[in-house]
Amino acid sequence: METQVGIVGAGPAGLLLAHLLQRAGIESVVLEARTREYVEHRVRAGVLEHGTVEVLKETGVGERLEREGMLHHGVELRFGGTGHRIDFSALAGGRAITVYGQQEVVKDLIAARLQSGGALHFEAEVTSIDPERGVIRFGDEELRCAVIAGCDGFHGVCREAVQDRLRIYERVYPFAWLGILAHAAPSSEELIYTHSDRGFALHSMRSPEVTRNYLQVPPDEDVGEWSDERIWEELQQRMATVDGDFILQEGEIFEKGVTPMRSFVAEPLRHGKLFLAGDAAHIVPPTGAKGLNLAVADIRVLARGLRSYCKDGDGTRLDEYSDRCLRRVWRVQHFSWWMTSMLHRFEGDAFEAKLQRSQLEYVVRSHAAATTLAENYVGLDLEDV
Ligand SMILES: Cc1cc2nc3c(=O)[nH]c(=O)nc-3n(C[C@H](O)[C@H](O)[C@H](O)COP(=O)(O)OP(=O)(O)OC[C@H]3O[C@@H](n4cnc5c(N)ncnc54)[C@H](O)[C@@H]3O)c2cc1C
């Protein structure tokens, strides 16, 4: 088998790349280890930056997103039992975020890919790659390509193939997130990030009928220790307001999982014919809602580079791919680390708790500090980082 671009992984990164290349008339083959059913129902991120929404809309896969996505013009920071709104519209040039599940983006991209007749193979687990020769091996087959896009997530084989050439930067946090989905109407129109003495909590949503809530828990927490009653009780306690006005709607929990928190970057992103993108190259803690958006930003840069290379034979943009993406990766790493450090409880560290409180008060009082949060949260322009 031969193709111009061999794409490993049908997550948001791999699927968006295939879609953008298809529109540019560049042939690609996508290989995905899991079934279509599995990837279409894998619940993960749900906050889309302004730029992510724009690229999906501009390229014809934003119709359902526009219809069903929930546009948010701000978030609430809650601490000391009092809420403070960060107004994106006022602070970030009228920009907003859209709440739309990652699995819905994946469904839309798969539908577009299949409709266009492009190659997308499920249950095709890649066993190894050769980054110098441009060879991808899966089952008994070999796919030869001019370029390999390593979009196979944090546990994939592409980064592993070049691990002795990478510089790794990593931070593991002393906590994890217990995330739930529940059949309950959202209790607020916007996301609520809560800092409390009992730990962090996030109130989010996926639709007018479904809420997504998170609790900070110990890193090795057994989800079996958390009955539905215990989860609601803990959320109620952490999110309670001094004036008692906030009412957290409860409902049937239909999804529960624990996500570890980590910051990770593997540099550089290019090795011969291999280009790493998305979670294959970097991980951020979810507090800044950036993982999916960062994967999309990598792909926008990679697709531009591949267009110049495949259409005009100009490899300059591909040569710049790693440095270009890493500038944004580190901006987003800083923001995600900052949000995580500011909002979570660090067990037994009273000094840290005082610093956090001071920082939170500054962010909600200072126009400059609130602007920093708002413009990073809605996402900086590709050209501005
Ligand atoms: C449990 C969880 C919760 C998250 N929650 C949030 C959140 O709330 N907010 C946020 O912003 N981000 C969140 N993230 C991060 C976000 O979901 C990721 O950043 C995003 O999925 C990255 O997309 P990707 O395409 O790079 O990787 P992935 O989505 O991981 O896609 C990689 C694909 O490659 C496939 N693959 C792996 N190995 C092989 C192989 N050998 N051969 C073929 N295919 C292979 C995988 O099956 C997968 O489909 C979460 C992540 C996890 C794991």
Descriptors for this entry?
38% helix, 385 residues, 2 domains, 12 helices, D-Amino Acid Oxidase, Chain A, domain 2, binds flavin-adenine dinucleotide, FAD/NAD(P)-binding domain, alpha+beta
Give the SSE layout:
Layout: E1 2-8, H1 12-23, E2 28-31, H2 36-40, E3 47-48, H3 50-58, H4 63-68, E4 70-72, E5 74-79, E6 82-87, H5 88-91, E7 97-99, H6 102-116, E8 119-121, E9 126-130, E10 135-138, E11 141-150, H7 158-161, E12 167-183, E13 192-195, E14 201-207, E15 210-217, H8 228-239, E16 252-267, E17 270-271, E18 274-276, E19 282-283, H9 291-312, H10 316-343, H11 350-365, H12 367-378
Parallel strand pairs: 1-2, 1-11, 2-8, 5-13, 11-18
Antiparallel strand pairs: 3-7, 4-7, 5-6, 9-10, 10-11, 12-15, 12-16, 13-14, 14-15, 16-19, 17-18
